[in-house]
Please model this.
Amino acid sequence: MSFTIDVHQHMLPDIFYRATNDAHSPVGGIAPAPWSKESALSFMDDAGIDVAITSISTPGVHMGDDAAARDLARRVNELSAGLIQERPDRFGGYAALPLPDVDGALRELEYGLDVLQLDGVVLFSNVRGIYLGDARFRPLFDELERRKAVVFIHPNASPDASAHNLGLPDTLIDFTADTTRAVAQMHYGHTFARTPT
Model:
């Protein structure tokens, strides 16, 4: 008997979408349908998905204000934990972290994994133009390594405005390029060597 787990399913509640997107210019270039637990379950049933590990999507929770990012991360993480409590047979979740605020990210990592018992974390290829291999993120990666935490890397839009001048959705070209840049920086910056598990 097969069992299908979707490790890349987005939870896009109104509190997240309103805080991070402009209705006339959605991040990624494509406006998603309204999200709900019921619509997620319906999609999963139609697609034959037994369990979905949910995460927020691009652009993450940080829009320039550390306090607001910490608050939004906490709210979406608690929503994710509530979803899992309601339907542990169908949902898991990755914690959102308020990067590039490393101190806030370390606190939310502890809360998300130890208190809420989420399954890992979602990190974005770049956060406000800072890529994952940047030395500023070393304390976070050291803690993720110490915990042997699951890390799901999700693409983000390039911080380079010229990357968006083709009029195409970021999902079509830029997400792949941005993820490649993030992974290359992590490799050549020795993040993987320092944190091999």
